[in-house]
User: Which sequence fits this backbone?
C-alpha cells in the first residue's frame, strides 16, 4: 500500500521493573496499519496486548522505537500535543463500555465532541446519526442503566467514532457479551469502521471474529508477527 499508515510502530520496546527483575514485554514490535484496514490482534493473555494498545493509543510511551499516528512522530510532541492528537485522531473501545451513568446515550456521544470544540448543532447531528446507524434511534434519551449490554456497547462504539478518528483501537470490544449479541455488535462495528474509512486494531480472543478482519497478527517473544 502506498497510502501513509494511520499507525506505524517501529521497533517498539517496553519493559517493566518487578522487584529486582526486569520484564521485557515488547522487544522491537513493528506494525503498519493503513486507513480502512481492520487488523485482528490475537495473542495469549500476558503477552503484551494491552501494553501494545496503550502505546499505540499514546497512553504509554515506549522506551525505544517510534510511534507515528496519522503521520505524526509522537516522540517529538509535547504532552499537550499528544493529548490533542489522541483526542482528535484516536477512538477507543474497551471490553466494558465505561459510559457515564448520569448521562443519556446521546449525551455520552455528544461529550467528546464538545471537548473537541465541535458546535452543538454539528455534534448533535453526528451523535444522532451514529446512534441511528447502530439501531439506537429510540434510545437517545435513555441512561446507560436502562440499556442492555449490547446497546451499551453500541453507544460506546458510537462515542469512539464521534470525533471522526483515523485510528480505532479496541480491546476485546464484544468480550463481555453473549455469543449472539457479540456477533451482531461486532458486525455493526465492522460495517461502521469500514464505512468511516478508519484504520482499526482490534484485540480479541475470538478466532471466528478475527477471521472476519482483513488480517491477523499475534505477539511472539515481544514482536508482532503475521498469523
Assistant:
Amino acid at each position: 500500500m502506498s497510502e501513509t499508515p494511520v499507525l506505524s510502530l517501529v521497533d517498539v520496546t517496553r519493559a517493566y521493573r518487578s522487584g529486582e527483575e526486569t520484564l521485557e514485554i515488547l522487544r522491537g514490535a513493528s506494525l503498519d496499519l493503513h486507513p480502512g484496514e481492520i487488523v485482528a490482534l490475537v495473542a495469549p493473555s500476558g503477552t503484551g496486548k494491552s501494553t501494545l494498545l496503550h502505546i499505540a493509543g499514546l497512553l504509554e510511551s515506549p522506551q525505544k522505537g517510534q510511534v507515528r499516528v496519522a503521520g505524526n512522530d509522537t516522540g517529538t510532541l509535547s504532552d499537550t500535543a499528544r493529548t490533542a492528537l489522541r483526542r482528535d485522531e484516536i477512538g477507543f473501545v474497551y471490553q466494558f463500555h465505561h459510559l457515564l451513568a448520569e448521562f443519556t446515550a446521546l449525551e455520552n456521544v455528544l461529550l467528546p465532541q464538545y471537548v473537541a470544540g465541535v458546535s452543538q448543532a454539528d455534534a448533535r447531528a453526528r451523535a444522532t446519526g451514529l446512534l441511528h446507524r447502530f439501531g439506537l434511534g429510540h434510545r437517545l434519551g435513555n441512561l446507560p442503566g436502562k440499556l442492555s449490554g449490547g446497546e451499551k456497547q453500541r453507544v460506546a462504539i458510537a462515542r469512539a467514532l464521534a470525533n471522526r478518528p483515523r485510528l480505532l483501537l479496541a480491546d476485546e470490544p464484544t468480550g463481555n457479551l453473549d455469543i449472539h449479541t457479540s456477533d451482531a455488535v461486532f458486525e455493526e462495528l465492522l460495517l461502521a469502521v469500514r464505512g468511516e474509512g478508519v484504520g482499526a486494531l482490534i484485540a480479541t480472543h475470538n478466532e471466528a471474529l478475527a477471521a472476519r478482519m482483513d488480517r491477523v497478527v499475534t505477539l511472539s517473544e515481544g514482536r508482532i508477527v503475521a498469523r
About this structure: The chain is about 35% helix and 25% strand. The two ends are 19 Å apart (CA to CA). The chain has one domain: 7-226.
